UniProtKB/TrEMBL annotation:
<dbReference type="GO" id="GO:0006282">
    <property type="term" value="P:regulation of DNA repair"/>
</dbReference>
<dbReference type="InterPro" id="IPR053924">
    <property type="entry name" value="RecX_HTH_2nd"/>
</dbReference>
<keyword id="KW-0963">Cytoplasm</keyword>
<dbReference type="InterPro" id="IPR053925">
    <property type="entry name" value="RecX_HTH_3rd"/>
</dbReference>
<dbReference type="Pfam" id="PF21981">
    <property type="entry name" value="RecX_HTH3"/>
</dbReference>
<dbReference type="Pfam" id="PF02631">
    <property type="entry name" value="RecX_HTH2"/>
</dbReference>
<feature type="domain" description="RecX third three-helical">
    <location>
        <begin position="107"/>
        <end position="152"/>
    </location>
</feature>
<feature type="domain" description="RecX second three-helical">
    <location>
        <begin position="57"/>
        <end position="96"/>
    </location>
</feature>
<dbReference type="GO" id="GO:0005737">
    <property type="term" value="C:cytoplasm"/>
</dbReference>
<comment type="similarity">
    <text>Belongs to the RecX family.</text>
</comment>
<feature type="domain" description="RecX first three-helical">
    <location>
        <begin position="11"/>
        <end position="50"/>
    </location>
</feature>
<dbReference type="InterPro" id="IPR036388">
    <property type="entry name" value="WH-like_DNA-bd_sf"/>
</dbReference>
<protein>
    <recommendedName>
        <fullName>Regulatory protein RecX</fullName>
    </recommendedName>
</protein>
<dbReference type="InterPro" id="IPR053926">
    <property type="entry name" value="RecX_HTH_1st"/>
</dbReference>
<dbReference type="InterPro" id="IPR003783">
    <property type="entry name" value="Regulatory_RecX"/>
</dbReference>
<dbReference type="Pfam" id="PF21982">
    <property type="entry name" value="RecX_HTH1"/>
</dbReference>
<comment type="function">
    <text>Modulates RecA activity.</text>
</comment>
Amino acid sequence: MRENNPEFQKAKKQVFRYLRYRERSEKEVRDYLRRKGYRSEVIKAVIERLKELDYLNDRRFAELWVKNRTNSGRRGPILVKKELQEKGIDHNLIEDIISVEYTPGREFDIACELLKKKIKLYQGENFETVKARLWKLLERKGFRYQVIENVVEQVLKEEIKN
């Protein structure tokens, strides 16, 4: 497809607007252009061009996504993996990035921070109810079983001391 093709130019312009808000995965861009009604050859050409210009890079997207989820979203690796799979990121790339960002100590710290903020909401409730709620919270946020077990135990011990 030639760059002077009007359909190509229009699609590229729409994608640049779409990319303005945040980094996107290749699948997100492909799905966006499909929803806009572009033909598959136009979509393929636009994606190739965006990759050449380094506007589209799944590794960079995944790294930023994971950093954002660990820092502000306080999400665990299971949930983040699921989100990245939904965004069309390659399984091996996901595993690589998750293993770097979610070291056992880092995952533990993220879960601890989250529970220390949330435990205040459960003051006055019985011990077993609080324990179950904290456990479920970490499960929903995508933390691993062993981390959940250790974090809930530690946070509850600290809370009892205080």
